[in-house]
Structure formats: C-alpha cells, structure tokens
Amino acid sequence: MTTGSHRGLRVTIVALVAICSIGWSGSTTTWVAWNSVGFFPPDLRRQVRLNEDRFDAGIRRGLSAPPAWRAAAPGNLEAALEGQIHHAAAALRTPVTMADLVEELGVLAVRVLDANDPLAAAHDDSLEPTYAGAYQAYVDSVRDRLRLVYYGQDSRIIGGKQVSASVAAILDRSRSLYPFLGAEFYRTGSLRTWRQLDDRSVAFGVAGVSLSRGLTDLANFAAYVWSSGGGLVPPPVPTPAGHVGATVTRTLGGGFPERNRAERGSPVMSESKLVLPPP
C-alpha cells in the first residue's frame, strides 16, 4: 500500500470515528433548531412554520450527511457549513420557492449545531470514543432542564461580509470547550458514567453554552440568508433603560412579566377589605 493510500485510509478511519463522537443526538439538534426559529426575522419565521414539514425534511437530510461533512478536520464540516450558507443565500436570489428555501435552512441548522458541538469540532483526545456516547446520552437526559439563551444579533454574520471568518470563529470557540468534557468524565481518574454527572457538572455547563450559541448562530445565519434576498431583518429590541450587562433573551421562561397582564376589564377577584395594623 502506498503512502498516499495509508494517509487516505487514516483520514477515512478518523472521519468515521468522528461521526460516532457527535455530542448532540438528532432529537436534540431538532429541538434547538426549532427553538431558534423563534428568533428568525418575522417574515422568514412565518414561512418556516407554514412549511414545517420541509424544515424537518432538511434537518433529516443534514443528519444523514456523510460522516466527513459533520466533523471538523480531518472532516469537511467547515467547508460544508460555509457552502450551505452561500447555497441558501444564492437559492433565495435565484429565486426558489419558499418551501425549498425552508428545507435548505433545515440542512443549515444541522451544520450550525455540528459546528457548535465540541466533540464534532475537535478530535485530539484519544479517549474521546470512550465518553462520546455517554455525553450524548447525558445531554438528552438533561435537555428539559437546560435554559437556552439567545445572545442577540451579530452584525458580522448578518452583514455576510465575514462568513468564512465567522464560521472559523465558531469552530475555534467549540474547540476551546473540547478539553473540559474529557476532563469531566475522567475527573476521578477513571471513566465515569453519564449517570454520575449532575447539573453542577462542567458537562452540563458546556451543553447549555454550546447549544445556546448554536441557537443564536443559526438565527443570525438565517437572518443573513433572508437579508441577502432582500428580506427585512428588523433591528433588535432596545435594551431596557437602566439595564447593565449583556442583553439576553431566554427561549423558555423569563421575559417581562408585565407583558402578560390584562390591559382592560374588571379584576377577577374583588379588592381586599383587610386593614393592616400600623407598623
């Protein structure tokens, strides 16, 4: 066997191992993708919900992609993600039907969430295959307790002038979290099962941060695709006066309680007649 053949075989083996080392299951990817739709530009969000079957079809296409398309180097995830972004943007300008565009956004959702998966972004830890399946099971088990966070619009992504740089930055960000997972599973010196981890574990934090970043990145890339075809991308809601720190919106719970108060009509219960004693 030639040196080139050896190299090709090694790349193939690593890529095949990488697909077994995906942190997100198909159900988790689908869950985050649909949560992200709530932060798409309003007109695009309406189209996705009108063609929900095509969005799901796109997600299935993305999940069934060849192993090398779902893993970073030596896989081709970086090129696959960048290519899908440009493909969807070009398709909208062609133009295509809204249903077809929605399906391409489903494929894009998988690519974006793969890029935000530390186990898909890096493969330097030789022990990764021993805990990758456990991490995927762990994320599925805690999904109902995760609070996804939308970090807001990113003008660099929506402007579309730095697509390559944005994709590279996402993968670098995921790689920075990669070492923490192996360290968590081997914290005691031997491999722990996912049932030994709790909500205070580093694994829980990595899942929450990575999936929230994936939700936000998908919303921003969808906004870029939409704006590239002339679609309206409204500016973000202004930060409330007096707010200090980062502006985030939780997809589950949170928000401003006063928004749910009735604005008219009589109170359901009569006013209290109790008189409190003076302090």
Keywords:
279 residues, 11 helices, mainly alpha
How is this structure best described in words?
With 279 residues, this protein is mostly helical. 57% of the residues lie in helices and 1% in strands. The protein contains eleven helices and two strands. It has helices spanning 3-19, 26-37, 42-50, 52-63, 77-93, 98-115, 118-121, 128-142, 155-159, 163-185, 202-228; strands at residues 149-150, 249-250. It has a two-stranded antiparallel sheet. The termini are far apart.
In short:
This protein has 279 residues and is an all-alpha fold.
Helix percent band: 55-70%
Strand order of the largest sheet: 1-2
What is the number of strand segments? Answer: 2
How many helices in DSSP terms?
11
> What string, H for helix and E for strand, traces the elements in order?
HHHHHHHHEHHHE
Mean pLDDT across residues? 84
Supply the helix-strand structural class.
mainly alpha
Portion in strands: under 5%
Gyration radius, in Å: 22 Å
Sequence stretches where pLDDT stays below 50 over 5 or more residues: 251-259
Distance between the termini: 91 Å
The rough form would be described as: globular
Largest sheet: 2 strands, antiparallel
Write the layout of secondary structure elements.
Blueprint: H1 3-19, H2 26-37, H3 42-50, H4 52-63, H5 77-93, H6 98-115, H7 118-121, H8 128-142, E1 149-150, H9 155-159, H10 163-185, H11 202-228, E2 249-250
Antiparallel strand pairs: 1-2
Helix pairs in contact: 2-6, 2-11, 4-6, 5-6, 5-10, 5-11, 6-11, 10-11
